[in-house]
Write a structure and sequence with these properties.
The chain is an alpha+beta fold. It has 23 helices and 25 strands.
């Protein structure tokens, strides 16, 4: 058997004896090592895969993978995966010189684990053919057990499988590492890139290299999809002409997914939830005509016109013309609710804008709670606009009579002062107290609404006093016993799960139930992507008015990038981004070079070439190089794991020393303590 040293053991790269893993595998098969500590030395992800294989009835004696049918089947596989193979071609070409005499092979598969492309050392390719590790070989976990193709496809995460970790005996003299490839449009797994060879070739940086390769393929796919979607949109306009200004033109890609919806010349929110961006309506095949496309559509869709969209002689999409279903109703731009300025202020009206069902439900719930005068807990991530719902509650109240609105950020007041700020104090109640005494925020809000932001940050020792105020509907200033009745509606805001705080002893359960008579969840922006075009146009118009310039139409490619972005800062981040773009615009146009890097994903940094486990620094960054993508993978892992280098290394499949070496190589500094 080949040397099995220098590989991964329990997530760390160090020497170990592969015979221990083989012994554990044999005990697993005979049933004596399936519980307790007998599986010492077998990684949990491998053991979980072995259990799946056993439950699926896979033969541990298998010595090769099944092979897809004859030439026609191989031709179909290559045709169906043509986009993926084209996107991978640059990555394969870049790695080809490194692999030629390295004893390894690079493999590309479809989402089923069927191999569609191979490249590498001739001797390794020849050895691979003996176990059907070749084009047409089917390597999903359900048919050939634990392996570096099927297992990461099954779990959705990069994985390496070394020697005796394979479930089937006939492939235990191989080591392999695979990274799934995801569709940039909808995030679904569409394939995998794998590096395989004899156990002795394994190097610690292989996993990071494969992750970078997968990212490179995804980047190429994203660029290809962007160009093709634009071509499909242009083709749809030539073939279908809306009869009315409110008719919708919906464009599908070759997978039958909605990629664009337009009313007139503007991108719009699809007129039906069945047509939301990314939803798959049907699967297009080359032989389909317009009638066949119509027959394959869901029954609830009644388009006025259908056209197949052909590019370069192949059916690559379809266009649907849908009559205006909103005629006589409010337009998508007016969906949501406007909040009037507070009495006596010069502020502009505020709008909670959107058509998302979750958002509209939250608005309706806030209005009903305002009418009832109930305490309200508004929960949502940072930047979703939680305080707007407090303002909405106040707006409902002030429609009946003038009512004060008082906002307090519990996290911005020191624990020593929060009590006096909320409840007031008597003259000289403590060192530094006002000689005249002071009314607290609850008194100032009497007859109206008090908004307590970051309620989860309220000191535990203050929480009983707040509970008493809410229960007695009266306040006692610090340092006096006089009872002061109040009529205040409380709106509490938090981006935390207060139930976790209760479990951790940081928040009182009785206070939680008192403040959450009505609980409102504000959805994050990534959960209401259909509202993004509405919000973008609203903010562009708002800032154009403030800057006293002509309104700017957001470019279509900008909207597509925004639609694909995760928006960790939610609506606040979107607002700030549109303001920045307005400031950078020239002659009424927004240039692509001014798009934020958050959207484009371009990073700068050092580039490196990895050869036999060593890294050589190359001058001049290249955003599309594998080395730059590896640097990006490390940066993203550090951010995702909040600087925990042990978890970062485990996530990337490398040891901590290797991680630190690569960080020095790329000039990455730790940004967490």
């Amino acid at each position: 058997m080949n040397d099995t040293r220098q590989t991964c053991f329990n997530g760390n790269f160090q020497d170990y004896d592969d015979s221990l893993t083989r012994d554990a595998w044999e005990r697993f098969l005979d049933g004596s090592g399936r519980t307790g500590g007998d599986q010492m030395g077998v990684r949990s992800e491998i053991l979980e895969s072995w259990f799946r294989c056993s439950e699926a009835g896979i033969s541990a004696e298998a010595d090769m993978a099944p092979l897809a049918g004859g030439g026609d089947e191989i031709h179909r596989l290559k045709h169906d995966s043509s986009d993926l193979r084209a996107a991978a071609s640059d990555v394969f070409a870049r790695l080809a010189p490194l692999l030629e005499n390295a004893g390894v092979m690079l493999i590309l598969t479809d989402k089923q684990g069927t191999i569609i492309e191979t490249l590498g050392d001739p001797a390794t390719l020849d050895a691979g053919r003996r176990i059907h590790l070749e084009v047409g070989g089917i390597w999903n976990e359900e048919v050939i057990g634990t392996n570096g193709i099927g297992t990461p496809l099954r779990t959705g995460k990069p994985a390496h499988v070394h020697a005796s970790e394979h479930f089937c005996s006939g492939i235990k003299n191989w080591t392999c590492v695979g990274a799934p490839i995801r569709d940039p449009f909808d995030g679904s797994i569409i394939g995998l890139v794998d590096l395989s060879g004899p156990p002795g070739i394994f190097r610690p940086h292989n996993t990071a290299l494969l992750i970078a390769s997968a990212q490179g393929i995804e980047a190429a796919l994203a660029e290809f999809q962007k160009r093709e979607h634009l071509r499909l949109i242009d083709a749809s306009r030539e073939l279908l002409r809306p009869a009315n200004s409110g008719d919708s033109l919906v464009v599908l890609d070759r997978l039958g997914r909605v990629v664009d919806c337009r009313v007139g010349d503007r991108r719009a929110v699809p007129p039906s939830q069945h047509l939301e961006i990314g939803r798959r309506l049907l699967r297009l095949t080359d032989g389909m005509d317009d009638n066949a496309i119509a027959a394959a559509l869901p029954g609830e869709l009644k388009p006025a016109g259908i056209r197949g969209l052909r590019l370069d002689g192949s059916l690559r999409g379809a266009a649907l013309l849908l009559p205006d279903q909103r005629r006589g109703r409010a337009s998508s731009e007016s969906a949501g609710i406007q909040i009037r300025p507070r009495a006596g202020t010069s502020e502009e009206p505020i709008t909670i804008l959107g058509r998302d069902p979750g958002l509209l439900k939250a608005i309706e719930l806030a209005q009903r709670a305002a009418e009832a005068g109930a305490s309200i807990l508004v929960q949502g991530e940072t930047g979703v606009g939680k305080e707007l719902f407090a303002r909405l509650v106040h707006d409902v109240r002030q429609r009946k009579a003038p009512a004060p609105y008082v906002a307090v950020n519990c996290g911005a007041i020191s624990s020593e002062l929060v009590g006096s700020e909320l409840f007031g104090h008597s003259p000289g109640a403590f060192t530094g107290a006002s000689r005249e005494g002071k009314a607290g925020k609850f008194e100032l809000a009497n007859g109206g609404v008090i908004c307590l932001d970051e309620i989860g940050e309220m000191p535990l020792e203050i929480q009983p006093y707040l509970l008493r105020v809410l229960e007695q509907r009266a306040v006692y200033r610090i340092g006096e016993s006089r009872r002061r009745p109040i009529d205040v509606q409380l709106v509490a805001l938090t981006n935390r799960d207060l139930r976790d705080a209760i479990a951790g002893g940081r928040f009182r359960s009785d206070l939680y139930y008192r403040i959450s008579t009505i609980s409102i969840a504000v959805p994050p922006l990534r959960a209401r992507r259909g509202d993004i075009p509405i919000l973008v146009r609203h903010f562009f118009d708002l800032f154009a008015k403030r800057m006293r310039v002509a309104p700017i139409k957001p470019p279509d490619d900008l909207l597509r990038l925004m639609d694909a972005y995760a928006w960790p800062g939610n609506v606040r981040e979107l607002r700030n981004m549109t303001e920045r773009l307005m400031l950078l615009s020239q002659d009424g146009e927004i240039r692509a070079e001014d798009y934020p890097t958050e959207l484009t994903g371009i990073r700068s940094g050092h580039a490196a070439t990895l050869v036999e486990g060593e890294a050589e620094v190359q001058p001049g960054p290249s955003p599309t190089s594998l080395e730059a993508m590896e640097c990006s993978a490390i940066l993203e892992a550090i951010e995702r794991e909040q600087g925990n280098m042990t978890r970062v290394a485990a996530c990337l499949g490398i040891s901590r020393p290797t991680l630190y070496r690569k960080m020095r190589l790329y000039g990455i500094r730790r940004s967490y303590g």
